[in-house]
Amino acid sequence: MQGLEVRGLSKRFGGLVVSEDIDFDLPPGARKALIGPNGAGKSTFANLVTGILAPTGGSIRFDGQDIAALDEAERVKHGIAKTFQITTLFSGLTVRENLRLPVLERLGQGGRLFRRADSDPKIEAEVEALLAQFDLLALADRPVVDLAYGQQRLVEMALTLALKPRVLILDEPAAGVPSSETHLIIEAIERLPEDLAVLVIEHDMDLVFRVARSIVVLVQGRILTEGMPEEIARNAQVRELYLGGAHG
Predict the structure, then answer these.
(1) What is the pLDDT of residue 111?
(2) What's the CATH superfamily of 4-243?
(3) Whole-prediction pTM value?
(4) Burial class (CB in 10 A: 0-12, 13-18, 19+), 175
(5) Alpha-carbon dihedral sign for residues 16, 18, 23, 28
(6) Greatest CA separation found in the chain?
(7) Buried b (16+ CB within 10 A) or exposed e, 201-226
(8) Cβ-count burial of 113 within 10 angstroms (0-12 exposed, 13-18 middle, 19+ buried)?
(9) pLDDT tens across 181-207, in order?
(10) Where is coiled-coil annotated (predicted)?
């Protein structure tokens, strides 16, 4: 099973403790959500796991290997990828062109200069499969800048999946997405490969309760509790701190 195993993870900025003694498991196929009030340390935790930040203490292991010394790019190559709260796409390129870039990069062909980018049928077949998986075929040849924001978030998810991760961290995938388009994000998450470990960091509780099989509640850099969605919805302390009695 293994997957991602975090033990005693801590992060301090001087005297400020932002993560403290976090134990966390994300096995293959998991669908886990990380929730908590603003300033709880959710994005800090994701940045520690992906190598954007270095921990002050604790360990991070992936499939039994200590990955603490690996930087962000090396962790991506090992199979840990993360989307961001703000879309980071090439807005002047088409959807198809955006998706082709990470495929080429993953295959070590990102720097080729003297061949047409669309000349490899295997690469094009992979791009086509991503377009189909995220229901983007009708938009494939439109510039990203012309897409609705919810559609841009789908492109970003597809772009990240093109890296072939085994752990996918979705950092507020519904941030900025109109409520009328949130269903696009939910449906895309539901279509992700079954063996992919997915961690969703999100404030949209409707999305969380739709896609998560377990939920971790983070408060002031520490894990308050973890449980199945129905358990979290019934937890009086969670309702008081975060959910405001909106669920259950």
Answers:
(1) 56
(2) P-loop containing nucleotide triphosphate hydrolases (3.40.50.300)
(3) 0.88
(4) middle
(5) negative
(6) 62
(7) bbebbebbbbbbebbbbbbebbbbeb
(8) exposed
(9) 999 999 999 999 999 999 999 989 999
(10) none
